[in-house]
Amino acid sequence: MKTRAAVAFEARKPLEIVEVDLEGPKAGEVLVEIMATGICHTDAYTLDGFDSEGIFPSILGHEGAGIVREVGEGVTSVRADDHVIPLYTPECRQCKMCLSGKTNLCSAIRETQGKGLMPDGTSRFSYKGEAIFHYMGCSTFSNFTVLPEIAVAKIRDDAPFKTSCYVGCGVTTGVGAVVNTAKVKPGDNVVVFGLGGIGLNVIQGARMAGADRIVGVDINADKEEWGRKFGMTDFVNPRSVGNVVETLVNMLDGGADYSFDCTGNVEVMRQALECCHKGWGTSIIIGVAEAGKEIATRPFQLVTGRNWRGTAFGGAKGRTDVPKIVDWYMNGKIEIDPMITHVLSLEDINKAFDLMHAGESIRSVVVY
Ligand code: NAD
Ligand code: AHE
Ligand code: ZN
């Protein structure tokens, strides 16, 4: 079939909207009509050439929601007309990782996914006879896409696509980092670095978990108002204080119980670790750093009881947890609507990247 898609032909070039060819689902795969997709900073990072796994030409996008239109041979867990969210972290429920009970990082298809291919080692997308690579196993910047059955979460039919697509990455990553990875408890003090599409979800996750102080840190002063809407109690602009770490340690009587990096900047990751309370404070890295970047701190920071951890997709097991997070949204336990600041057509998708880089959007969503 033909489908409209925004193709990244090269790094650092605007996406081009073209009609591409899409092969139907093979055994164990499903064809999904994407109804809406968010634009996450990770899409921009890959387009800007910072991803060591970045591969072109490809169809980016990993934060979508849509409807199953066709299923391949042997598919049993979903059927045509089911509403689904594509999963860049699938859940096969059979691999060592899934069965460990210790991680959400399913290993069933990770190798081919990282090469922009489906599990059989081929691509379903092509343009003028040349293969176009998949991205993060999702490629939601295409109106139709093919996914392995293990990489879709079935969600309730009454959840709007325009907002529930955000559960495909940002909401789950931020809220999940708090509840699954850090396991923040009532009364804990939390610091969140970077109040964008991910950081604001960490803030609302911390509010839901009953955190006491929730301190937001951002170099963009406009983010103070945004943070306060979702439960932030204090704001620090690193450009207005001498030493961010000292400021935070003094504010929180020794430091944070949990801190979260939602910037992808390795200098900020160091600040996030060092603002943690001696003896127990844990810093969670969410931000994705540019290829070649490394984190550093004095080992003494760890010797004296601070912990450094990371999280992907908020530690969520996609097929199990994503439908529950959609329920949380539909039941009013978490908010999504106010964070969708811009709704665009596919033709205008490049504007979403401009808005993100200018710090003017929280989430832009393309509705097909
Ligand atoms: P975003 O662009 O919406 O937000 C980033 C925020 O960080 C902005 O508000 C910006 O002003 C702020 N910031 C930048 N430099 C800063 C600094 N030096 N100090 C304090 N604040 C600073 O991006 P996003 O969509 O929220 O994504 C955030 C990061 O999370 C990205 O690196 C993205 O790739 C990553 N991410 C990781 C996962 C995961 O599973 N681990 C999932 C989604 C996104
Ligand atoms: N491909 C990069 C790393 C990118 C990365 O860390 N991605 C996160 C999700 S970001 C979503 O917005 C992730 O899930 N990581 C775990 C994984 O298996 O990819 C690189 O450095 O090579
Ligand atoms: Zn993302």
Automatic annotation (TrEMBL):
<keyword id="KW-0520">NAD</keyword>
<protein>
    <recommendedName>
        <fullName>S-(hydroxymethyl)glutathione dehydrogenase</fullName>
        <ecNumber>1.1.1.284</ecNumber>
    </recommendedName>
</protein>
<dbReference type="Pfam" id="PF00107">
    <property type="entry name" value="ADH_zinc_N"/>
</dbReference>
<dbReference type="GO" id="GO:0046294">
    <property type="term" value="P:formaldehyde catabolic process"/>
</dbReference>
<keyword id="KW-0862">Zinc</keyword>
<dbReference type="InterPro" id="IPR020843">
    <property type="entry name" value="ER"/>
</dbReference>
<comment type="similarity">
    <text>Belongs to the zinc-containing alcohol dehydrogenase family. Class-III subfamily.</text>
</comment>
<dbReference type="InterPro" id="IPR013149">
    <property type="entry name" value="ADH-like_C"/>
</dbReference>
<dbReference type="Pfam" id="PF08240">
    <property type="entry name" value="ADH_N"/>
</dbReference>
<dbReference type="GO" id="GO:0004022">
    <property type="term" value="F:alcohol dehydrogenase (NAD+) activity"/>
</dbReference>
<dbReference type="GO" id="GO:0005829">
    <property type="term" value="C:cytosol"/>
</dbReference>
<dbReference type="InterPro" id="IPR002328">
    <property type="entry name" value="ADH_Zn_CS"/>
</dbReference>
<keyword id="KW-0479">Metal-binding</keyword>
<feature type="domain" description="Enoyl reductase (ER)">
    <location>
        <begin position="10"/>
        <end position="366"/>
    </location>
</feature>
<dbReference type="InterPro" id="IPR036291">
    <property type="entry name" value="NAD(P)-bd_dom_sf"/>
</dbReference>
<dbReference type="GO" id="GO:0008270">
    <property type="term" value="F:zinc ion binding"/>
</dbReference>
<dbReference type="InterPro" id="IPR013154">
    <property type="entry name" value="ADH-like_N"/>
</dbReference>
<keyword id="KW-0560">Oxidoreductase</keyword>
<dbReference type="InterPro" id="IPR011032">
    <property type="entry name" value="GroES-like_sf"/>
</dbReference>
<dbReference type="GO" id="GO:0051903">
    <property type="term" value="F:S-(hydroxymethyl)glutathione dehydrogenase [NAD(P)+] activity"/>
</dbReference>
<comment type="function">
    <text>Has high formaldehyde dehydrogenase activity in the presence of glutathione and catalyzes the oxidation of normal alcohols in a reaction that is not GSH-dependent. In addition, hemithiolacetals other than those formed from GSH, including omega-thiol fatty acids, also are substrates. Also acts as a S-nitroso-glutathione reductase by catalyzing the NADH-dependent reduction of S-nitrosoglutathione.</text>
</comment>
<dbReference type="InterPro" id="IPR014183">
    <property type="entry name" value="ADH_3"/>
</dbReference>
